[in-house]
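Review form for a predicted model. The reviewer records the input and the model, then writes brief findings.
Reviewer: anonymous (R2)
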Amino acid sequence: MAEVGRAGISDPGALLPRGFWAAVEVWLERPQVANKRLCGARLEARWSAALPCAEARGPGTSAGSEQKERGPVPGQGSPGGGTGPTLRSGPKRGMACCELEEAQGQCQQEEAQREAALAPLRDSGHPGLAEGDEGDFPAADLDSLWDDFSRSLACGNSEMLAFLTCPGAGSQPEAQRELDVVLRTVIPKTSPHCLLTAPRREIVVQDVLNGTVTFLPLEEDHEGKLKVKMSNVYQIQLSHSKEEWFISVLIFCPERWHSDGIVYPKPTWLGEELLAKLAKWSVENKKSDFKSTLSLISIMKYSKAYQELKEKYKEMVKVWPEVTDPEKFVYEDVAIAAYLLILWEEERAERGLTARQSFVDLGCGNGLLVHILNSEGHPGRGIDVRRRKIWEMYGPQTQLEEDAITPNDKTLFPDVDWLIGNHSDELTPWIPVIAARSSYNCRFFVLPCCFFDFIGKYSRRQSKKTQYREYLDFIKEVGFTCGFHVDEDCLRIPSTKRVCLIGKSRTYPPSREASVDEKRTQYIKSRQGCPVSPPGRELSPSPLRVAAGSAGHCDGHQALDARVGCVAGALAAECGAGPQAEGPWLPGFHPREKAERVRNCAALPRGFIDQVVLQVANLLLGGKQLNTGSSRNGSLKTWNGGESLSLAEVASELDTETLRRLKRECGGLQTLLRNSHQVFRVVNGRVHIRDWREETLWETKQPEAKQRVRSEACKTRLCWFFTHHPDGCALSADCCPFAHGPAELRPPRTAPRKKIP
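Model under review:
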């Protein structure tokens, strides 16, 4: 046994030992956040077991496997939420400190709640196994695996038994202890440059009372049965000494450690990188509002599909004609397509279908997601209000339409299986509604980004949640009101907004379609502010809508004809808009304009921008008169850097007409000042004059690639300080990245246009 790393932890928030188990749970469920060469992990089974007592070793001694109690694998969570390693009730066995005793008492109630929550799941499927994943492990084989391992410990493998019972935060290793045992599969990333792609199984033994977690790799014997390997065994240990906590990483047999660089990194990585992350996670007092990534689909299938699509469509990055970042948008759409393909593949398996699902992508943007799904065999089309240059690249097999979507009875899709809203902006809250009214069998997938209500921007109502979390809850509420079971998942995409919401099934039978549609109508009106009908005076459904509902809402054209005029007419009548037989479902909705107006201050007249910049700079320099012509280089000792003012203080000095013009732009005054990067620095709401002496020192520490890009742009613009600052430029002409006068100007470098094959 060898200790490869040890870290002391400061715990001012008294988060340990519970924080340690929360950190362990992250490493168990999401190892990819620490080891970037992994795609993830799948927890296949979890059960309680026991090891032989230290003095009871000998032939015929078996572990207390009769104590095994299997239950389905809990979802994302931490011990604080009742889904992590559980402190068992009973006599206290050498508790390290009062915090551990207190945590034990708190967990007894949580254990009862956890057992009650898991009880319905135990009645279905195989006990102890995660349902729906490939490669499920039979419960009988788990019994045999653990019993064989326990028997080997009792029959002479004293070194391994001592390693497993090594005291950490607890003591009394000679007593028989109850353990939390997890069977997990570690999934490497699939890559053409990596030969190792097969998942690896291991048993994770968590001794909560003793503060240790031991990872035991599994291998197949000559008969194909799994057994515990004696190599690549390591342990994470929590210990406590003199009011200080420590986390250690130990290896059972260093000479037997064989690193593959992926599932089994080098011991130095365990003792440095992993240990540092565990120490950090243990004292982070924050709980995620979101699920772990890819919780609804097979991680293994996703990893394979993503790598295949990434390899297939990587050339798109080289020929991207849009002004947006190709690296971000191409690989983001590849990841979303991989997710949908696996989601739909598993749905076909569940429903016994062979035909691939059809779809419509509302607000499809660049259309790449539609192109990939079409190319992979799914019939469908994309609709967006504005055509993109890249559409011409896809060819006739990719169906993209330039059209504005206004939610009404004419924008239903009765023959489509799925509606997609990928950053669909103002259409996002409407997509569950359109899906629900298109047909009973229509489902939806939305990836919310910008915050829109049914009409206009979404207004926050709860200050205790982040705006993003509150908006996701709003879209979930819309989906539930529309009659969907709404699932939430987190995608692996290069975006801060990566939570998707999925409506795959309904909460009601087809015969109740008419009554549920009334509730949808009432809910939509309540969001606009129109008074909802009081109890007893609810809108009565028209005979046509009742007929459509009783028909199961499956004949899309009949449902469409039956609904025409019902929702819009009733809504218009109550809101005073007059009869609208085929009008919008909610008057006031406006799709975005076809021509996207630039509102980042870049389109403002150059003279207006220069005037505001001079005025703000004058304020920061204390009213010192600015030059309007050329100036000498400033002295390093006397150069005036000015003071800092808040944005509010700056705005109070500007005239009404200037503020009015700026208010029409996104970000207003702050955007204009940030755009004037050469002159100003805006930090935490305060405006400063930029001192390029500090910037030059910072730039010398940048990577070589960034320095090369900056050098190519050098001297392509005039130096504002050389021209306008009372003390001139703080840098000499050969050090300043801007031109000191027209004679130094260089023509800007223009990149060659990429050819589209």
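Findings: The longest strand covers residues 38-50.
Further findings: Residues 56-135, 530-581, 629-636, 752-757 have pLDDT under 50 and may be disordered.
Recommendation: see findings above.
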